[in-house]
Amino acid sequence: MESLPRISMIGLSLKTSDDLPDLGPMKKCIEAYYQHSSDMYQKEFTDFLSCRKAACEPSIDYTGLSKQKRYYAQLQLAKGRFRSSVEDGTAVSWNWRDVFTNSLVECPHFVYEEAAILFNIGALHTILAVKEKRADADSMKVACTHFQCAVWAFDTICEQHRLPHVSSDLNSDVLCVFSSIMTAQAQECIVEKSVLDERPANTTAKLTQYLAQTYEQTTNQLSLPSILDILPSKFQKELRRRCELKSAYYGGLAAYFSGLSEDGNKKYGKAIAWYQLAERRIADADKIAKEIKDTESVFPTNQSVPLRSNVQFVSSVIQNRYV
């Protein structure tokens, strides 16, 4: 197999914020704790709000990422300089819409704003990754890096900005699921690169087997009560189908490349057994692919070639090898 077909991947939509926050509590903090007139810092407050607006409405490119990360850095500085307490009225109320329910959520804590913008940084990385065609090694590397950066963002929310349940998209269990999916999609890019580089079949077999296991584990994660209770069913359903499909698909590829390895070692009986297993796993993937249409996905995805067409192409390659 000279190259793998580019199986579609998914990204995450960006959170949106309806209104700019009222920074009156910050001004109160300046006057109460620093004994300065807040009017002296009107330009700084205006710049802060402009920075937030740019981060909330980013262009889908590296410029948009830069604006998001600049605002995140501004938040880090502000958090260290301003007291934020609901009791004394110095807490700013931040508002964001939940990606999955579209409900407006307000929370008077810096950590919520940090988590929301980090989520969007991760989401934009996934969108940029999905846009990559992965037709050559450079594009594969770019997509892989974007997915890895998204994992960093989601993991950072869980580790440093953990919140009590305020919105489904910032729930730690939900973020762990998406972290697992993005890690797996980064691994897919590595598998595609391995095939492109014509690395030894047993090496590619190990990579694809790990990938199949990762998707199987993610499917199990989606059955956790916390996920079932929080994530709306249409998102659960699509994620589960995609993970089940990719577990079967990459399990089939792992068997196929294991067969190639045994062929190379002239162990033809073992090779045939591997090819038979590959054929069964790809058939399982094809059954699931019938139920998935990228054009109807609830997630940002690349739709250049129908998902099932790619699965059937791999099936034909395996059958030709087996016959």
From TrEMBL:
Q: Could you tell me what this protein is called?
A: BRO1 domain-containing protein
Superkingdom of origin organism:
Eukaryota
Gene Ontology CC entries for this record: endosome
InterPro entries documented for this protein: BRO1_dom, BRO1_sf
Q: Which Gene3D superfamilies match?
A: alix/aip1 like domains
Q: Which GO terms describe its biological process?
A: early endosome to late endosome transport; endocytic recycling; protein transport to vacuole involved in ubiquitin-dependent protein catabolic process via the multivesicular body sorting pathway
Concerning SMART domains, the annotation shows: BRO1 (SM01041)
